[in-house]
C-alpha cells in the first residue's frame, strides 16, 4: 500500500500550534490561500497539512466547503462527555482481567513519553501519544463492541479540543493522570481506575 502523502516538515504542527493558541478560533474556516500566504507554503503542502489535521480530528473537513476548526455545541459536548464517562469507566472492569506486566510496561512507557513531550515535543506529537495511550488501554477490553463504541464516541469530537490544551497546568494534570491510571492497572484496582478515568474525561483532555 502506498504511503500517504505528507506536507512539508513542520507545517502541520505550525497550523496545529496556531489553532491551540487561538489564532484560529472554534468554527473558523481555514482558507487555503490564506494559509499559503501565512506559512509561505505551496498549495499542495497546505492541502496535505489540512488533510493530516482532519485525519487526526484537530479540524473538520466538510466536502465541497472546506476545512474548519471544531466548534461543538456546548450541550452536545456535555452529553458526549457524559456518554464517554459511562463507557470508559465501564470498560475499566472489563479490561482488568487482561492486564499483564508487559501491558503495564507498555502503557507506562507511553505515559513517560507523553510527559517528556511536555518539555521538548510538538503539540501534534502530544496529541498522537495521548491517543496511543488511551487506545492501548482500551484495547485490553474483552468486549470488542465496547471498544468500538468507545472509539466511535471519541471520534464524535476533536482528539484534543484546543480550548482544553491552552494551559500548561491542565496538560501536566493529564500527564499525572496517565501515570495514575497505570498504577491503578498495576494494582488491579478497578474502582480507583474508574475514578481517575471519570476525572480525566470530565476535563475533556483525553
UniProtKB/TrEMBL annotation:
Organism: Achromobacter insolitus
Statement: the UniProt record of this protein carries the keyword RNA-binding: no
Highest taxon, organism lineage: Bacteria
SMART domains, sorted: FCD (SM00895), HTH_GNTR (SM00345)
Positions of transmembrane segments: none
Xref: Pfam families: FCD, GntR
Alphabetically ordered keywords of this record: DNA-binding, Transcription, Transcription regulation
Residue ranges of every copy of the HTH gntR-type domain listed in the record: 5-72
Annotated protein name in UniProt: HTH gntR-type domain-containing protein
Gene Ontology MF term list: DNA binding; DNA-binding transcription factor activity
InterPro entries named among the record's database cross-references: GntR_C, TF_FadR/GntR_C, Tscrpt_reg_HTH_GntR, WH-like_DNA-bd_sf, WH_DNA-bd_sf
